[in-house]
Amino acid sequence: MSLYSICCGNFHQLRNSIGHICSIRFLKYHSIISSENVLQNRRHKTRPFSATVLVRNARKGSKQSISNDRHLHGGSVESSIEVFKQSDLQHLKSLQCYDIQEKVSGGKTDCPATILVFDIETTGFSRRGDRIIEFAVRDLMGGKNSTFQTLINPEREVKNAAVHGISTKMVCSSDIPRFGEFIPILLQYVWSRQVAGKPVMWVAHNGKTFDVPFLIFEFQRCKQEMPADWLFVDTLPIARQLVDSDGEKISSASMKTLVERYKIPVDGKAHRAMHDVTALCYVLQKLTFELKLTVPQLLEKSFRVSDITTTPPKK
User: Fold this and answer.
1) What's the predicted TM-score (pTM) here?
2) Based on the number of CB atoms within 10 Å of its own CB, is 280 exposed (0-12), middle (13-18) or buried (19 or more)?
C-alpha cells in the first residue's frame, strides 16, 4: 500500500486548510472544537474526547486538576473547565479510541499504522537544556479534528524569538499549559485518532536528531513514559536518496529545498509548528511517490524511543 493512495483522498482537505485555523487549538485552556459530523470520512463509534490536565495553583504552588470533556457528536462544542482535587491520571489509559474502518476512494483501506506528522518549536538546540514551546500534529487520514496544536509554557525566557516569532510573553503565561499539563491532552488526542491494534507512526523532518529527542526528554522530565506502540520516521535521510536532473544525489535535503523541488504552495511563516507540519505533509506525499515507498516500507525505516541513547535531563 502506498502512502500516496492513502493521502490522495484527503489532501484536498489539506489544501483547503492552508492558512486557516486548525480544528483543535489548545493555545489556551478555553477552546472551542468545531465538529459537524466528526471524522465524516470514517465509519466509527464515537466516544467522548476528554482530557484531564494538571495545573498549578498560582498562589500556593500546588497542583490541581482540570476536567475538560468534549463530546464529539456534532455541532460546535465549547469546552468547559471544572477545577477539582488532583486525581490519578492512570484512568486515561483505559479510555477507548474510535473504532475506525478507514475508507479512501470508496474502498476500505487497511492501513498498518496511524500516521501523524508533527513538528515542534523550542527555546534552543540543546535537548537537555532547552524546552519545547510549540507542538503541532496532523493525522494524514484527515477528517474533522485531524489537526492539533498548542503553545507550551517553558517556564523560562525565550531567547530565540527571532527564529520562530514566539516570544517569552506569548508562552510564559498562566493560561498556557506546561509540558506536564500538555501530556495527557496529547495522549488523548492520539488515542482518539489511533486505529485499534495498530501502532502510531510519528513523522518529522530531522526527527531523529531534533524533534524526537526533545520529546523524549520532555516526557522524562515529567516522569512519564511514551506509549510502547509509538514509532518514529525521520524524512531527512529518506529525502537524501533523491537525485537531481543529472542523476546525482541532491546536495541539500532541507525542508526549504524540498518545498521548492515539489513546488508546494505553503503560505505563512516558516518555523512555526503547524506551518512546517503542513509543508511536511505535502513533502511526504511527493517524496514517497517519487521513491515508490509504501507504508510498510516506511515502518521498516522507523525507530523507537529505545533506539535513541539519552541521559535523564537535569531539572
Assistant:
1) 0.71
2) buried
β-sheet with 132-139: strand ranges across: 24-25, 147-151, 132-139, 114-122, 200-204, 230-234
Rounded to 5°, angle at Cα 2 from 209 and 232: 20
Residue of 44, 71, 271, 275 with catalytic role: 271
Which residue is it, cell 517519487? 290
Contact present, 198 and 112 (Cβ < 8 Å): yes
- Alpha helices, DSSP H only, in 84-195? 161-164, 168-171, 179-193
Q: Quick: pLDDT tens for 235-272.
A: 999 999 999 999 999 999 999 999 999 999 877 666 78
Beta strand extents in 93-131 (DSSP E only): 101-104, 107-108, 114-122
Residue 189, all three cell numbers: 488526542
Let me know if 271 is a catalytic residue. yes
Measure the CA–CA gap between 295 and 276, rounded to whole angstroms. Answer: 21
Q: Is the dihedral of CA 50, 214, 196, 107 positive or negative?
A: positive
pLDDT in tens, 65-105: 333 333 323 332 222 222 222 333 333 333 332 332 333 33
